[in-house]
Amino acid sequence: MRQSRRDAAETSGSVPERTPRGRSGARKTGGASGAEPPPPAVLSGETLPAAPAEGFFICDLPWASPKEDMASMEHPLFTLATRPDRRILSYEHGEATIEITPSVKGLATIHDKDILIYCVSQLVAALNEGRPVSPVLHLKAHDLLSATNRETSGDGYRRLREAFERLSGTRIVTNIATGGVESTRGFGLIDSWEIQRKARGGRMIMVSVTLSDWMYRSVVSKSVLTLSRDYFRLRKPLERRVYEIARKHCGRQAEWRVGLGTLLLKSGSTSPRRVFRRMIRDMAEEDGLPDYALSLGADDVLLVRARGRMAPAPGEGPRLSAFAHERARAAAPGFDTHWLEAEWLRFWVSTGRPPLHDPDAAFLAFCRSRAERGLPR
């Protein structure tokens, strides 16, 4: 069976920075039940977190665990194509409607989304530490590229700029509710961006990003989920999208089922169903997704199983005292202690869930061990 260029693009191991290709058309999708609870509500008029005195937030938390907003995990806002995709997309799911319009540069790609994941991760880590945040972020380009497993070469910086252009140029009109507030409005995935360069050599030294109000509201309401760090090692666009859907709907359940037709629509793939079926079957056989194993049945129902090292749901694991995170910050300076707790719980699960007489002491010992080993991999 022959595979088209478009189909190959969705499953190829192309690097994140390659530009997408598209075709005209629209898509309409049906629903699928989700495993995750609805996001915490932020009522209209509720006070947002205080902004830093400087008016912007500095991304200086290299250990922040990857976080992604739940709305873009649920809905296909990013193209899976690897060449400029200039389609205008229309999408409906329940009461949510979305229209996505590209700029002349094309739609934002699922690899461009790494920038948003990095920004969201930094803000959530800061909120967990009680720090003031802002929709305006200042970051070092090198830190962003390193955290998202991208090249830090000259080409890497050039492609980063192209990603910013697609993110700011892609316009969305939607009535999706974020933070408990539903509004119909148009916006870009980011409002603006700025790159500061050294006068000699032209290398990026600092990047400023302003998130859209829609995205920022998702962050401050904690309408986010934690991703595996191995997400950034996935190079095939469809693998990334299927992982997002599995993370959103399977969550920490033992398993979750979804029909192939629904998965095709939710993924945003433009492949014919027969080709999509083959790609999903190949993905299941390769078994390369972090956290989840896939199995496609003869009835075209995909079974998603959580792997053993998923952290237990809140309240199911050992309980830490109110002072545990304060002590953990002293034991592992610079680390995101909430990420450390999740890693500790995964380790506890992998060792057979042994009874702990002093969970705080076990957690602190784990934190010290991680700090001695350095950067988490």
Write the layout of secondary structure elements.
Blueprint: H1 5-11, E1 57-58, E2 67-69, H2 70-74, E3 89-93, E4 96-101, H3 113-128, E5 136-139, H4 141-147, H5 154-169, E6 171-174, E7 177-178, E8 181-182, E9 185-188, E10 190-197, E11 204-211, H6 213-220, E12 224-226, H7 237-249, E13 255-259, H8 260-267, H9 273-286, E14 292-296, E15 301-306, H10 324-331, H11 337-350, H12 359-373
Parallel strand pairs: 1-5
Antiparallel strand pairs: 2-12, 3-4, 4-6, 5-11, 6-9, 7-8, 10-11, 13-15, 14-15
Helix pairs in contact: 10-12, 11-12
Protein name: Replication initiator protein A
Region (Disordered): 1-47
Pfam family, one: RPA
Polypeptide structure, described:
- The chain is of the alpha+beta class and 377 residues long.
- It has three domains: 199 residues, no CATH class; 70 residues, Arc Repressor Mutant, subunit A, CATH 1.10.10; 50 residues, no CATH class.
- The chain is built from twelve helices and 15 strands.
- The strands form five sheets. Strands 1-5-11-10 form a four-stranded mixed sheet. A four-stranded antiparallel sheet has the order 3-4-6-9.
- Strand 7 and strand 8 form a beta hairpin.
- The radius of gyration is 21 Å and the shape is globular.
- The protein starts with a helix and ends with a helix.
